[in-house]
UniProtKB/TrEMBL annotation:
Domain spans labelled Methyltransferase: 71-162
Coiled-coil ranges per UniProt: none
Gene: METTL27
Pfam short name (any one): Methyltransf_25
Superkingdom field: Eukaryota
Protein name: Methyltransferase like 27
Gene3D superfamilies listed in its UniProt record: Vaccinia Virus protein VP39
Xref: CDD domains: AdoMet_MTases (cd02440)
Length: 238
């Protein structure tokens, strides 16, 4: 049995590693369409913590009762973030994703009031300016997914005083993207578009797909990669 489980984990690592290595957006979306039905079980096998960590961070900072907040889940995938939000009392949830296969899985959860097909970076979000109390994007900030240039679009649909929560991996293969991302985040802060509330590094983000990606000392069986959670508040209109 252990051998079967090990073989399964090896296959999961290979799939996730392959997804990390795809930098062409159209190819990445086709990969996600095919992966959608197995996605939840695969990321569970890798002990993927980003949805839980991001929603915890948001919950601690968002004022008012959770059921009153309108939330946008960008690159929502199969709805893992929505499940974490619902568990904490958030009920008004909208989601967007570029993969129709992922959206089909998200729709089956029955947690979103609205789901839209949208490839952020190639088209605007399907919402007016200042719509949401909070916007999250979890697990989509890397090469071949959402470009850094799309970050202002998240800010556009957030209400003044609202929150934006973002995550990215900080393993070696994603460090160049992270550097560009942080330059974008800092530029928006310098322009007084938003203020940073949290930048929280996490060592045990998910199981590494290769030992070269792992944080030293995080496990005897391949190790974990690291990541980071950011939280920003959109500035009020003067």
């Amino acid at each position: 049995m252990a051998q079967e489980e090990g073989g399964s984990l090896s296959q999961v690592r290979a799939r996730v590693g392959a997804s990390h290595g795809i930098t062409d957006l159209a190819q990445k979306l086709r990969f996600y369409d095919r992966w959608a039905s197995d996605y939840d079980q695969d990321v569970a096998a890798l002990q993927y913590r980003a949805p839980n960590l991001a929603v915890d961070c948001l919950t601690q900072a968002l004022p008012g009762p959770p059921q009153a907040a309108l939330i946008l889940d960008v690159a929502c995938g199969t709805g893992l973030v929505a499940a974490e939000l619902q568990a904490r009392g958030f009920l008004q949830l909208h989601g967007v994703d570029g993969s129709s296969g992922m959206l089909e899985q998200a729709r089956a959860r029955g947690l979103y009031q609205r789901l839209s097909l949208c490839t952020l970076g190639q088209e605007p979000l399907p919402s007016p300016e200042g719509t949401y109390d909070a916007v999250l994007m979890v697990g989509a900030l890397s090469d071949g997914q959402v470009p850094c240039s799309a970050i202002p679009e998240l800010l556009r649909v957030t209400k003044p005083g609202g929150l934006v929560c973002l995550t990215t991996r900080t393993n070696p293969s994603n460090l160049q993207y992270k550097e560009a991302l942080e330059a974008t985040l800092d530029k928006l802060e310098q322009a007084r578009e938003w203020e940073r509330l949290v930048a929280s590094p996490v060592d045990r983000w998910e199981l590494a797909t290769t030992k070269l990606e792992a944080v030293p000392g995080t496990s005897d069986s391949g190790g974990f990669i690291s990541g980071i959670v950011y939280l920003y508040r959109k500035r009020q209109v003067a």
